[in-house]
Design brief:
About 45% of the residues lie in helices and about 10% in strands. The longest helix is centred in the middle third of the chain and has 29 residues, at about 180-210. The chain has 15 helices and eight strands. It is an alpha/beta fold and about 325 residues long. The protein has an eight-stranded mixed sheet, with helices on both faces. It is elongated, with a radius of gyration of 21 Å.
Length: about 325
Amino acid sequence: MQIGIVGLGRMGANIARRLMGRGHAVVAYDRDPKAVAALTGAQGASSLQDLVDKLAAPRSLWLMLPAGKVTEAVVEELSGLLAKGDTIIDGGNTFFKDDIRRAKRLREKGIAYVDCGTSGGVWGFERGYCLMIGGDRDVVERLDPIFGALAPGVGNISVTPGREHRDRRVQEGYLHAGPVGAGHFVKMVHNGIEYGLMESYAEGFNILKGRAGDELPEDERFTLDAADIAEVWRRGSVISSWLLDLSAIALAKQPDLAGFEGKVDDSGEGRWTVAAAVDEAVPAPVLTAALFTRFRSRSGNTFGEKLLSAMRNEFGGHVESLVPAHKAPGHSRTDK
């Protein structure tokens, strides 16, 4: 299947490579010509117009861009270049209400819009991407070969009992969550939960680290090896997870995490999740506390906050920012 990819950053380029590796034809565009030239095997485009011209109708274009103004501008430009029957897929971390608004506007021109929450970070090329998809069923079905190629597949994860008559694609790592906006809504809550899980590990390891403190009675002090604890918890523990795997990698590389300041960004999805909880009058104390801890981390940092930074670096290649990130709903980056 032929597809256009717009945005060849950390995830966009790897998405293109994974698709090409599974037999799909990619036409690629990025505002940086060097990024296009570096994508071996893809047909390069010099502009959005050139990209559209090189795609056969009906065209499908996957956007992997920073959410907010950048994506908005590209969608607006493409709306004037594409034709009836074409499809825009937004694979970034867009605010779900922006999806709904864009889809309504594009529908008037006969252009379909699909929102795809994409999880997998810099590891996605190798591991595959967990996809949460929103859009009209017939459009999503037509794009199934693309989603199936990007998803991780069943792998060695055991089948959940009782799922024999449910959608097989979910077990392969991709879900048609519902109409436009539903995919990014599910991904938004996914990232909110991620905040909470990361915070739990960070607080736990901070307690372990603090056990050597001078304020404790001498016979109650323990100098504990965080890297070894993370490793043993990976094996048979009920709190094992990929985030713990990444923590173990970071701690093995640098047990004191001296290379991290612990200034932890938030990219928008945690805020949107908390705002959705407020809209729905649903209590979310853990997710809210995790978000507010990230705000606090930007002035004086603990070992736990350094671990938060280390986890973000391991799964997404995210580097600590020098200034706090203040992002309102609808205007975010593609990191977490």
